[in-house]
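Exercise 7. Given the encoded structure of a 543-residue chain, write a plausible sequence.
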């Protein structure tokens, strides 16, 4: 027997419609590419989104067409999210920090019909355009700032939407309709496309807005530092519209001074981004003695969070750190260390350990760990193996990529994450490593992530990476590569002495190298493949 409830498809349009109806005066604040502040509200944004929907129709955008964006976090990018998906097309956010040949590959693989771009990226597009399939390019600016670029079919965003009706008859889309597309920033091989649907997006939005997850409310002022081109800014534009939260977009200005000023000026209560951003911000606060007056909580994800970062935010600034794990393939949130973990009545040391773990599965995402034969391992907090997941907002295939799809799923359809984790009996997940980053010493595994986190706990360390170096006796031994804080006088002996008090003796790296900076991927993760290449011939002192 079927239930008798309405068949109302889940749709992204319903989010902005709701925000405009019930939170019309709630502000959306953007720092523009030029540095000025733009302010409007959900009511005004929705009017422009409907004008943009008309404009897309006039450009000949049809259901299913992919429309690319190359843009920072700002109000026009936000408008594109809702207008493109709302008309039944696919909002394809492209990461402009990728290498140009990768961007070219992505735009052509997705067969993007139009590219909407911030002024910053016009020179890049001019370089690529002769080899791109796109029909035209829209510059996300006003008439006066239009560049004299050589791009074919160059259109001004403000002119495109000006004078169009502010009402629009949205199509009733099947909830399985594709809504957005994001390519993973893999460190090897060509990027792979993950194609989200209206249904997966809305279910993910409900999930991340639960009380023990992001928990956005209409009283929050939310600043996604995580880019709109990285897994839909972790779903925050959708979660904020569902909750009616004020949105604050930092544009391209992600340095600590700009972020701190914006947080204070807009009384941001919640922000989200990768640990590198927060470590730099902490350093700035330490140097200047500045404190937050409004920032209650901070979501950190994308890479492991060192305990020292969690304790510094809490103890010095009263800001609770929530640590989440996710992937482009998971929309992205899979596990979340609840903000409440920060309030657990446990000794700080124990509590911080929970917070530094990757948290527990959010409702809807199932987890299992398997050994090399694919046999399931117990959730006892000790066994670790490959993490596989499934759920309604986990990808079921890569976009137009059979080969990658074949490799990514087990015979029961679970998605292989490529992360190696342990799960304790209460469900707390701890990432041991990426499969390929583990260090195998004398037949035992050393977690490069744990070593890096321990190293960053030293007050003079800004960032650290641990990689495996071949060793005649032990197969592999860890090399620690460190970026010291400016002015610090840290040396090899002191670093190793410190680590001897933090990790098992056989984990202590065999060597330490100091470098001015570490290579990162386009989404801010350590680029271990580059480090491995750079240190391929490195001779460990112990070898
Ligand atoms: P991406 O698809 O670019 O978001 O990258 C996903 C990968 O980032 C995951 O498979 C993990 O290896 C890593 N990652 C994401 N969140 C965390 C986290 N909280 N701690 C450690 N690694 C993480």
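Solution.
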């Amino acid at each position: 027997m079927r239930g008798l409830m309405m068949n109302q498809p889940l749709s992204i349009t319903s989010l902005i419609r709701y925000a405009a109806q019930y939170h019309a005066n709630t502000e959306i604040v953007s720092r523009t590419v030029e540095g000025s502040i733009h302010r409007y509200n959900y009511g005004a944004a929705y009017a422009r989104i409907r004008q943009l929907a008309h404009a897309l129709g006039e450009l000949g955008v049809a259901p299913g067409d992919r429309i690319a964006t190359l843009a920072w976090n700002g109000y026009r990018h936000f408008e594109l999210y809702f207008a493109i998906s709302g008309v039944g097309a696919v909002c394809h956010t492209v990461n402009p920090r990728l290498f140009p040949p990768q961007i070219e590959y992505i735009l052509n693989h997705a067969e993007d019909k139009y590219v909407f771009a911030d002024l910053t990226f016009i020179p890049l597009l001019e370089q690529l355009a002769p080899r791109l399939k796109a029909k035209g390019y829209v510059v996300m600016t006003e008439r006066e700032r239009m560049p004299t670029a050589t791009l074919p079919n160059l259109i001004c965003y403000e002119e495109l939407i000006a004078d169009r009706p502010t009402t629009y008859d949205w199509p009733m889309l099947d909830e399985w309709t594709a809504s957005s597309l994001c390519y993973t920033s893999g460190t090897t091989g060509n990027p792979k496309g993950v194609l989200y649907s209206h249904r997966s997006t809305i279910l993910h939005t409900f999930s991340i807005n639960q009380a023990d997850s992001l928990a956005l409310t209409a009283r929050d002022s939310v600043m996604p530092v995580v880019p709109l081109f990285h897994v839909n800014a972790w779903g925050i534009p959708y979660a904020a519209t569902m909750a009616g939260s004020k949105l604050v977009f930092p544009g391209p200005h992600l340095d600590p001074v700009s972020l701190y000023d914006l947080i204070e000026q807009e009384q941001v209560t919640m922000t989200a981004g990768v640990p590198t951003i927060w470590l730099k911000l902490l350093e700035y606060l330490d140097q200047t003695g500045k404190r937050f007056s409004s920032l209650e909580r901070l979501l950190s994800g994308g890479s492991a969070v060192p305990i020292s970062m969690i304790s510094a935010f809490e103890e010095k600034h009263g800001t609770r750190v929530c640590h989440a794990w996710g992937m482009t393939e998971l929309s992205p949130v899979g596990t979340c260390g609840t903000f409440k973990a920060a309030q657990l009545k446990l000794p700080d040391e124990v509590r911080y350990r929970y917070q530094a773990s990757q948290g527990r599965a959010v409702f809807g995402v199932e987890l299992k760990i398997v050994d090399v034969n694919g046999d399931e391992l117990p959730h006892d907090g000790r066994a670790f193996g490959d993490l596989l997941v499934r759920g309604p907002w986990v990808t079921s295939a890569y976009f137009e990529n059979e080969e990658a799809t074949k490799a990514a799923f087990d015979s029961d359809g679970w998605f292989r994450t490529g992360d190696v984790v342990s799960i304790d009996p209460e469900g707390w997940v701890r990432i041991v490593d990426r499969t390929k980053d583990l260090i195998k010493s004398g037949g035992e595994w050393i977690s490069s992530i744990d070593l890096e986190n321990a190293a960053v706990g030293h007050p003079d360390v800004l960032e650290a990476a641990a990689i495996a170096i071949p060793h005649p006796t032990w197969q592999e031994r860890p090399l620690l590569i460190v970026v010291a804080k400016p002015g610090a006088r840290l040396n090899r002996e002191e670093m190793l002495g410190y680590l001897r008090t933090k990790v098992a003796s056989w984990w202590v790296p065999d060597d330490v190298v100091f470098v001015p900076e570490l290579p990162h991927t386009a989404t801010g993760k350590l680029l271990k493949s580059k480090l491995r290449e750079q240190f391929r011939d490195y001779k460990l002192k112990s070898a």
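Remark. Residues 111 and 508 are 49 Å apart (CA to CA). Students should compare their own answers with the one above.
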